Amino acid sequence: MRVGAKLLLLCLCAAAGLYAQSGDLQKIMKERGLSERDVLAAAKTYTPSGMKDKYYAFSSGGQSGQVIVYGIPSMRILKYIGVFTPEPWQGYGYDEESKKILENANIRGKQVTWGDSHHPNFSEKNGEYTGDFLFINDKANPRIAVIDLKTFETVQIAVNPVFKNTHGSSFVTPNTEYILDAAQLAAPLEDDYVPIEAYEDKFRGGVTMWKFDYSKGRIDEKNSFTLELPPYMQDLSDAGKGPSFGWAFTNSFNSEMYTGGLERGLPPFEAGMSRNDVDFLQVYNWQILEKLSKDPKSYKIINGHKVITIEAAVKANALFLIPEPKSPHGVDVTPDGKFIIVGGKLDSHESVYDFAKIKKLIDAKEFALKDAYGIPILDLQKSLYGQVELGLGPLHTTFDAVDGIAYTSLYVDSQIVKWNYRDLKVLDRVNVNYNIGHLDSIEGKSVKPIGKYAIALDKLSIDRFLSVGPLHPQNHQLIDITSPKMEVIYDMPIPLGEPHDMVSISADKIKPVKTLQMGTDSRSGGRHEGMTLAGQERIERSGNQVKVYMTAIRSHLNPEHITVNKGDEVTIYITNLERAVDETHGFGISGLNIHASIEPGKTVSVKFKADKEGVYPYYCTEFCSALHLEMMGYLYVKDPNKKYPDYKAAAISKLSKADLEKEYQKIVATNSATDGVIQSVVGFLQKNGYEKYPAVKQNVEDAFVQYGNIKDTKAKADAAYKKGDINQAILWEMQVWQYMVKTADVGLRAKAQLEREIATPMNAAAKSGEEAFHAGGCSGCHVVGQVSSGPDLTGVLLRHENGEKFVYDFIISPEKYYNNPYIDAMIKAFNLRMPNQNMKPKEVKDIIEYLKWVDENAGI
Ligand code: RUQ
Ligand code: CUA
Hints:
Blueprint: H1 3-16, H2 25-32, H3 36-45, E1 55-60, E2 66-72, E3 77-82, H4 96-103, E4 121-125, E5 128-138, E6 143-148, E7 153-159, E8 166-172, E9 178-183, E10 187-188, H5 199-202, E11 203-213, E12 218-229, E13 233-239, E14 247-253, H6 269-273, E15 278-285, H7 286-292, E16 299-302, E17 305-308, H8 310-315, E18 319-325, E19 328-333, E20 339-344, E21 349-354, H9 355-363, E22 369-370, E23 376-377, H10 380-383, E24 384-389, E25 394-399, E26 405-410, E27 415-420, E28 425-431, E29 436-442, E30 451-458, E31 474-480, E32 487-494, E33 502-506, E34 538-542, E35 545-553, E36 556-558, E37 561-565, E38 569-576, E39 585-589, E40 594-598, E41 603-609, E42 614-619, E43 632-638, H11 657-687, H12 694-708, H13 710-723, H14 726-758, H15 764-775, H16 796-799, H17 803-812, H18 821-830, H19 841-856
Parallel strand pairs: 12-17, 35-38, 37-43
Antiparallel strand pairs: 1-2, 1-33, 2-3, 4-5, 5-6, 6-7, 8-9, 9-11, 10-11, 11-12, 13-14, 14-15, 15-18, 16-17, 19-20, 20-21, 21-24, 22-23, 25-26, 26-27, 27-28, 29-30, 30-31, 31-32, 34-35, 35-36, 38-41, 39-40, 39-42, 42-43
The structure holds (dicuprio-$l^{3}-sulfanyl)-sulfanyl-copper (RUQ) and dinuclear copper ion (CUA).
């Protein structure tokens, strides 16, 4: 056992002494068959309730067409973002705003409802991740998406106009000037029929450079262009940085240009495509290509899109080839931009190219040969820095904070290899389970990798998890890379498509909004034309177009009844009037394939043709309050040409007048008592200047919005009572109470927040005391302000004569007090003896300072 492990175990065991009732650590380890190593790994990843992760991971969701967001090191999944395919929870593909985004993603007019989401990448400034946007490509249907990380929503999808699918995508240049999007399976750039015999003539590969408008947060399709490449199958791409800034690299396979033909008795693709000993790394300069994209002599227009010809690129010294070992895969530029690392599916070597050497050959126009398309080929040996034998099937590489350290995945060997690309030495290897594809380390592909953890994206899980039938989950493994020996510390099954690749980022770089400004269209970021505020709810008709302006707030949808004619085109705009964080409402109509998620402040629209007569319930789909089930309504579709019976509503209440009066008085009394509670909370908030604390202010304002509804509602109740309609008066008073409950709900949340804000600041001793209180295990039994498995310690210093001395002596040697009548009573009451925590005198003194602080603030 390592010393660290021993120490930790001692600590854990000491703490476990407190948990005598729930079992001790040694016992649990024995029962569950855990080793000390396992316990250490658990301590490295376990994240207690309320504690947050340090890093975000954004993983592609493979064939689900989504993006998976999870935290590191806990590996807890936080969200699936709908990208290329509908995602019902978020209303993605069911509300009009997101449908527009997906319609824009149609391929030649055809709606495609799956995607093979592939390589996610962050926006960058100076080669560092910014955390503003995430890009991801769909390999199957050549599309690229922009996700705004303020809302974690897909805001744009662009369809590649010339490729039939893409793979070496979506890699960004160091200031997100462009997003690189390379083709994979070569095909004609036009959409016409071309037979395979014309492969060399008419089939092409290429790289599209999508211009990104950072301030708008959108791809500028008009100023984007494509570089035509030979029909070698393009593989992966990466952009140069530092000394290689302005250049980009895309590798390839099938330099053989083999066209298969098993059905004609010819050997298959796989035989012919791996015949040559080398394929090509394509090296191109996007800064020169950008200039060519402004010169009509250099490009052709295909499908309305600029395609720079191979010929023009070669002439402008913007395109070169370098041989790569057999069937390469993966290309990664080192953080300093000096080297380009290429793996090989069928080669056990990793090749390190030296950009300075490449640049020298280019500048000196020293070319070995030209390929069939006239592209100059640089000499392999003269471009190489060196090669290193890593093992079978090296694919992808990521980097560490330590200069020169790289981690490469070995698909065939199911390993990650740690090596140094400067001295070309292998340092360590760790087995993963099984068949790893991509891998990542924290911010590993930026100019400033953080390292710390590696994540293995294993394609197969085989025997790692409970069986769920023949389709197994994939396995993301978390690996501690902080010490010389790598160690797998967590396995996470991913049950959503093949999570192809991922990127990770420091959590403080992501700055999501928690609520939206009232009336926001989250897909455009602007104000929604259908924004509806309280009191503006209405139904408008023009011809057969019906527009419903609806609001949602705990716990009603307004309007609650909508009647339309068969054949009407109905649009419902829904605004969530809530301001409180996490008070999302959903809106679903039964049987119409309509669903929307309406986060606080959002306006969203749903549209449908009312083509079948009937009664359609609608309701809120998020459990948003105690009366969530009552948040409902009906849509009626009637046939204008039909005659219906004339129904009369039944009398609602069958109570006697005296009983009604009694009920009325009761609810009025409840309301005035509830109002008393609210007024005391409001008084506290005002007295303590809640406006100064933005988060508190937001909740208070939300409470006031609820409270503000009371006056009108109360007036309606009074008017009904005056008219003698006690039944109506009761119902309106009930509604007053509903508003009060919601006011109190948010108001109390605001009060708790404010209490924390205004507590007196802790001095240094109290602060270390609080730390010692937690680290020493006290918080295992004592919760300040609350009786839990031990007594509440608020006021403990005052409960005893000479309190400070008593508490000090008691913590130092509790055994001495077990017979003290007071302590004995406590032991009996809690069925637990306070153990000796072996605390140091200084720690105990600090804890007393902390308890003093607790008492000082107990009054708040
Ligand atoms: S690559 S098949 Cu990302 Cu290893 Cu796609
Ligand atoms: Cu709103 Cu349930």
